């Protein structure tokens, strides 16, 4: 928590200092105009990239792939949008950085690696993977095995049930008469 508190104190101070410096350099109204223009351009870019990421996520789900990269992209775009809407040059610079896909992917890999090393989640690797890098199935695996007709194979334990035998938890359905093989029925 101390890091978060430090950020909440340091970022506004840095933004105020940058406002003063840029305002002295280019003037009050150009400074305000620059902040508004970066917010408009940033939100437009966030919207375009967000819709593209949503479409890629739909495609991944239609192909029975987990949209891991798309979720990461969406999270980065959410943070970028919040930073771009926050008035300031420092937050705009960080927000615009998150809109550059190679930088966003590098940041995402670093955050995922950090979270995996610190026990936030476990990464299982099975080989194969999605050619695009971070996307695909958990751990970058090749995806679910397929059976006849391309249907995914669901693996698990099962118990065979005779459809003619009653469920042991059901009450008897013979009008109150008991079956000598099933006990007293009370």
Automatic annotation (TrEMBL):
Provenance organism: Marivibrio halodurans
Record field: compositional bias (Acidic residues): 157-167
Keyword set, alphabetical order: Membrane, Transmembrane, Transmembrane helix
Protein name (Swiss-Prot/TrEMBL): FxsA family protein
Transmembrane segments: 26-46, 67-90
NCBIfam families per the UniProt record, alphabetical: PRK11463.1-2
Ranges of Basic and acidic residues composition bias in the record: 170-186
Gene Ontology cellular component list: membrane
Compositionally skewed regions (Gly residues) per UniProt: 126-144
Region (Disordered), start-end ranges: 123-186
Database matches in Pfam families: FxsA
């Amino acid at each position: 928590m101390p890091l978060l508190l430090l950020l909440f104190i340091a970022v506004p101070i840095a933004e105020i200092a940058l406002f003063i410096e840029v305002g002295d350099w280019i003037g009050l109204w150009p400074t305000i105009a620059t902040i508004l223009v970066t917010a408009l351009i940033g939100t437009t870019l966030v919207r375009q990239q967000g819709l593209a990421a949503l479409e890629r996520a739909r495609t991944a789900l239609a192909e029975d792939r987990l949209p891991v990269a798309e979720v990461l992209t969406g999270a980065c775009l959410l943070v970028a949008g919040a930073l771009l809407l926050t008035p300031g040059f420092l937050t705009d610079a960080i927000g615009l950085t998150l809109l550059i896909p190679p930088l966003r992917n590098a940041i995402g890999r670093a955050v995922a690696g950090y979270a995996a090393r610190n026990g936030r989640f476990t990464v299982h690797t099975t080989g194969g993977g999605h050619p695009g890098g971070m996307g695909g199935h958990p751990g970058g695996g090749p995806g679910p095995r397929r059976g006849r007709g391309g249907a995914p194979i669901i693996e698990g334990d099962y118990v065979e049930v005779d459809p003619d035998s009653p469920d042991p938890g059901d009450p008897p359905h013979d009008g109150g008469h008991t079956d000598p093989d099933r006990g007293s029925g009370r």
